[in-house]
Amino acid sequence: MAENQNDNVELIDEDEVFTLYDENNNPVDFNVVATVEYQGEFYALMQPVEPMDDLGEDEALIFKVVQKNDEEDEFIPVTDESVLDAVFNEYLKAEAEFADGCDCDCDCDCDDCASEDDHCDCGCGCHGDHE
């Protein structure tokens, strides 16, 4: 199951394996790290089960998830740098929120926020702008 979910990101802690095929039709097994909804589209951050050339063991690939039919999804590699950056930043934000845990009224779920004076200096992205 998911270990964390916010409005548009779900961090996955399961080791469910998805088999995709490379350009030579060779099978490559992946674990889903997270799913992200960005601008109405769904994306999956996936890490290969076995090491891949040109990909560090802490790196992931981002695929757009397109529903092919009622039972099958198609995973399309994302090549647009602006989409890659935006999706990855949404993932990083969700992961930081989960790791920090916040109880200020900015909904960032980190421990460093001072909710009593409505000032946040935890680095959660709210910049202390509580209203």
Fold blueprint:
Layout lengths: L1 E4 L3 E4 L4 E5 L5 E12 L2 E8 L12 E9 L2 E6 L3 H20 L12 E2 L4 E2 L11
Antiparallel strand pairs: 1-2, 2-4, 3-4, 4-5, 5-6, 6-7, 8-9
pLDDT average, as an integer? 78
How many DSSP-defined strands?
Answer: 9
- What's the main sheet like? 7 strands, antiparallel
- The total of helices stands at 1
Beta-strand residue fraction: 35-45%
In whole angstroms, the N-to-C terminal distance is 35 Å
Q: Using only CA atoms, what is the Rg? A: 17 Å
Structural class: alpha+beta
Shape: globular
Portion in helices: 10-25%
Low-pLDDT runs = 127-131
Order of helices and strands: EEEEEEEHEE
Protein described:
The protein has 1 helix and 9 strands; from the N terminus they run E-E-E-E-E-E-E-H-E-E. By secondary structure, it is α+β, with helices and mostly antiparallel strands. Strands 1, 2, 3, 4, 5, 6 and 7 form a 7-stranded antiparallel sheet that branches. The chain has a two-stranded antiparallel ribbon with strand order 8-9. Strand 1 and strand 2 form a beta hairpin.
Structural key phrases:
alpha+beta; seven-stranded antiparallel sheet; two-stranded antiparallel sheet; 15% helix; disordered C terminus
